[in-house]
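Piso0_004133 protein
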Amino acid sequence: MAKINRRKLKKPPEGYEKIEPTLVKLQEKLKQVQRSSIKTENKHSSLWPVFQVDHQINRYIYSLYYERKQISSELYEWLLQQKYANKDLIAKWKKQGYEKLCCLSCIMVDEKNHKNTCVCRVPKSTLKENNDSPVECITCGCKGCASTD
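Structure:
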């Protein structure tokens, strides 16, 4: 569940009741994944399910507001304020070329060894054809989030 300061908490805006069951279900799924991710043997792959569920939550809120237009801007801002969604990731999705971005760590070039973006951001058509193994991001397990795929 999102961290909520109860003293400063305002009553949720109108329309929250409709999306609350799905958000609660996704938050519970995230908690389960966080508990089980400790038990994996590979250091990198242990966090992949957490990134995937977090992406799913962010994409759900993004699609409700921008694509389906089913929630008000007041409710959208409240969800961002209560940290149900990552506002920086959603802001990137609105920019051309980042519509399918999996996580922000894949575009942060300062944190990578070779000072360039992650392999999942490279269009699959430009990757070498002789590589039989599927390309996965080491950070989040993404198999490709370039907008041209």
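The chain has a mean pLDDT of 86.
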